[in-house]
Design brief:
mainly alpha; 5 helices; 51% helix; 0% strand; transmembrane; DUF805; DUF805 domain-containing protein
């Protein structure tokens, strides 16, 4: 999956918590989110109040705008790695929680239960 395909997929499935998200989809989205946030924070040179800066305002609005897609892709990635959606609550644990989640998100994809890893062999020809 390419960078652009990953971004399109996350925005297309912005509120879909079912299904799975591959490692490339998740990590390309994380990079995109980091780049947009960093670019918006460049506007911190513009002060819009006594203690308010334009970059912080724009970055905060972006974060609110992508909160649902971030949570959805994170839950789908956890499911793809073989973990339940409840592990997203590791985010509530300061510092150690994000470390645990990064380890979970970095795991390779697991086959869902009941789905064979290889297709079944074709049936043998009938004897004449």
């Amino acid at each position: 999956m390419s960078f652009g395909e990953a971004i399109q997929t996350v925005f297309r499935k912005y509120a879909e918590f079912t299904g799975r998200a591959s490692r490339p989809e998740f990590w390309w989205w994380a990079l995109f989110n980091l780049l947009v946030t960093s670019a918006l924070n460049l506007f911190n040179v513009i002060q819009i109040g006594d203690n308010a800066y334009l970059g912080s305002l724009l970055s905060g609005l972006w974060s609110i705008g992508v909160l649902l897609p971030n949570l959805a892709v994170a839950v789908r990635r956890l499911r793809d790695a073989g973990y339940g959606w409840g592990h997203i609550f590791w985010l509530l644990v300061p510092i150690a929680g994000i470390i645990v989640l990064i380890i979970f998100w970095a795991q390779p994809s697991k086959q869902p239960v009941g789905v064979p890893s290889t297709p079944p062999p074709p049936p043998a020809p009938a004897a004449a």
